[in-house]
Amino acid sequence: MMGKLQMDREWTEQNLRAFAEGAQAAFETVLLDELPQDTGWQDEGLQVSYALCNGRVSCVLHRTVRADGKLWRITMSAPLAGNLLPEERMSARERELCREDLNHDFLSGVYNRRYLETVIAAELDRWAEQGRKAAVALISLDHGAQLRDTYGQPVMDQLICFVANQWKKYFDIPGSQIVCRLTGTTFVVGCLDLDGGQLAQQMRNIYAEMPHECVTSMGMMKRVPFTLSVAVAGLDELDSAANCWQRLYAICDERLRGIQISGGNKIC
Asked: pLDDT grade, residue 93 (50/70/90)?
């Protein structure tokens, strides 16, 4: 049952409701809720958390999926034996590995939005206070919705992984150069000791050499062409060292919209 929830990509509302009904035989509580539409949704896989209530520990599984054009969250919980949370039973190494899992995107393997908005956001403020250079780039897959409609979600997942790993080849130095998946087809590159202009030029050079086709292996092999739009901003554009990530994101987002309106496939 869990394998099916993790691996299936093409859901319908009917088979999702059937899954929830069948899960009631194995879980104490099963909830299926329709969520508001959110264009920033991304598949983060099966999430696990634990709750301690009235001396009883429960394991809670939840996942958000798209079915028939709607977003749904399925939540399942069951009690565990004992009254200790799993973190209290872990060794230091096990806790470290668990944190690593929580900080990485389920699909692409690069860092996720949680890591970006907690660890990297704090680092940007610290670097700004120290007067160091840093810059971020917002990367968007052009015409993502059209690509998904044309090739399907499984092919789209492979394309997302391909794009993530193309940038990770060049920006994968913990503490100074990272790639994060922000939303479904949007990524962020963060780079220490480069200003916005330097990062933009470096990314232009990389993009010029990057393959602009992804060979996918779902069914018959396909060559899926793609282009990217990239907007860059640096700490040197800010007038203070507070809330740097939010303000850099706002600058990049405005620039990215302009690139996309003009047809995309550009770095600025």
From this structure: low
Predicted TM-score of the model (pTM): 0.69
Domains, in order of start, for the chain: 2-94 (no CATH), 103-267 (3.30.70.270)
At 170-188, the pLDDT tens digits run 999 887 899 999 988 999 9
Higher pLDDT, 233 or 29: 233
**For 118-140, what is each residue's pLDDT tens digit?**
889 999 999 999 999 999 999 99
Q: For residue 134, with 0-12 CB atoms within 10 Å meaning exposed, 13-18 middle and 19 or more buried, which class applies?
A: buried
Provide CB contacts within 8 A for 90, sequence distance 6+: 98
Cβ-contact 66, 11 below 8 angstroms: yes
Give the whole-angstrom CA distance, residue 228 versus residue 268.
12
H or E segment and range at residue 78: strand 70-79
For residue 112, what are its two tokens? 């996720």
Q: How far apart are CA 244 and CA 252, in angstroms?
A: 12
Contact predicate 139/188, CB 8 Å:
yes
